[in-house]
Design goal:
Layout: H1 43-61, H2 64-87, E1 94-98, E2 102-106, H3 114-128, H4 133-142, H5 145-161, H6 169-181, H7 183-203, H8 207-223, H9 235-263, H10 268-279
Antiparallel strand pairs: 1-2
Length: 283
């Protein structure tokens, strides 16, 4: 190698060569953590909640068949919500039994559109009616009007849930339709109907229902936000929502009247009398 091209040795006054910067470890970019998935109700608490709910209904009704019917009806009703939530991307949904009050279906995320919210809300009462089937079957095989009362109780459970008052299913099915006309119309209708149902519960001695709806109504008023996020209903979906709501309500009423018609010896006037007495308007 030529001396001219040979590198000069470093002298005592030369600067120290710059040390190569150590390679930095690759930094893993942090992404926003998704909220933890709801694990659902533990088996022990679910059993205890079911026993407390059934025992409370048995205590206030005095009939174990009504207690079994309502508890079974709550499970099937809420499972209808769970199926719809999973179908429309809100799952995996979880089912909860709430002591003394009923049940709750909870998704992992909100509905992507109000239309999906309507379908989820109506799936509970629609599927919940299937819970009356074994009680009609037991009446056909064993006889006894107590099974018919159980079927009627399941129909009433789903029909009452269709009342358009928060937080019942009817408010989630009809509320978006009213809000499409004007947001204040939805608020006014929900408050008015909620107050009427609370008054009906108090006047007919249904204190638990009245207290539950009163607390829920106050909570909605305090929260102030009535419309969830998501795409609003289209005109066609609004008409479909009203039609599905009416069909579901008619089915619930029809199953209840069928049970009471058989209970009253195949007398429609007798069935209407029993239904009116339950509603507090019968003579």
């Amino acid at each position: 190698m030529d001396d001219a091209n040979r590198p000069r040795p470093r002298g005592p006054w030369d600067r120290e060569p710059a040390a190569a910067a150590p390679a930095k470890p690759a930094v893993r970019r942090r992404t926003s953590a998704s909220p933890g998935e709801d694990k659902g109700q533990g088996i022990g608490w679910a059993i205890l909640s079911t026993v407390l709910l059934g025992g409370f209904i048995w205590f206030i009704s005095g009939q174990w068949i009504i207690a079994v019917a309502i508890v079974f009806g709550v499970f099937v009703h809420e499972y209808g919500h769970v199926l719809a939530m999973n179908r429309y991307g809100m799952g995996p949904a979880k089912l909860y039994i709430v002591p003394f009050f009923g049940g709750l279906a909870k998704g992992q995320r909100a509905a992507s559109s109000e239309w999906h919210g309507v379908l989820v809300s109506l799936a509970g009462p629609a599927v919940g009616l299937l819970a009356a089937t074994p009680f009609f079957a037991l009446y056909a095989v064993l006889g006894g009007n107590a099974w018919l009362i159980g079927a009627a109780a399941i129909a009433a459970l789903n029909l009452i849930n269709l009342a358009p008052a928060p937080p019942l299913d009817g408010s989630k099915a009809i509320g978006p339709v009213l809000a499409r006309i004007h947001p204040k119309l939805e608020q006014g209708a929900m408050i008015l109907i909620g107050v009427l149902i609370v008054w009906w519960g108090i006047s007919t001695g249904r204190w638990i229902l009245a207290a539950f709806l009163c607390i829920a109504l106050i909570g909605h008023l305090k929260r102030g936000a009535w419309r969830p996020e998501g795409r609003r209903l289209s005109a066609r979906e609004s008409w479909s929502s009203v039609g599905l709501f009416a069909a579901t309500a008619a089915a619930c009423a029809g199953v209840g009247l069928l049970a009471l018609w058989l209970f009253a010896g195949r007398s429609m006037s007798g069935a209407l009398h029993v239904a009116g007495a339950y509603l507090g308007i019968g003579a």
